Amino acid sequence: MLKHREGLKQVIRHDVHDRSDTWFVLEDGSNLDQDLEDLLVVLEHDALPLLDRFHDPCSIMASLREGMLPHINPDSPAGRQFIAAVDTECAKAP
Fold it and tell me: Which site among 13, 46, 63, 77 is 20 to 30 Å from 84 CA-CA?
């Protein structure tokens, strides 16, 4: 997917935190520039568009339906409360 994953594959150490979705800076910092560049790409292309959807409660409901918010458990009390609140706000939206 991205440069940081390729870099991680070249790391000799295989610590618990050596995951493909985590930026790992080597002790000597030699890959820091590459990690920062990759982080900016991910933020710009993945994170910011997702966060923009949260300005509109109806978009949040769409994200829930599309499975884009897997950490929201609709069967838990907190999940039901969250969904009810978002649904209420979506109904108020123009």
Answer: 46
Enumerate the domain spans of the chain. 1-53, 55-94
The total number of residues shown for the chain amounts to: 94
Residue with tokens 């009390």: 77
* Closest to 61 measured CA to CA, from 44, 49, 74: 74
Cβ neighbors of 52 (< 8 A, separation 6 or more) are none
Q: What is the DSSP letter of 82?
A: H
User: For 73, left (φ over 0), alpha (ψ -120 to 50), or beta?
Assistant: beta
pLDDT tens per residue, range 26-67: 899 999 999 999 999 989 998 898 888 888 899 999 988 888
DSSP 14-81: --TT--TTS----TT-TTHHHHHHHHHHHIIIIIHHHHHHTTSHHHHHHHHHTT--TT--TTSHHHHH
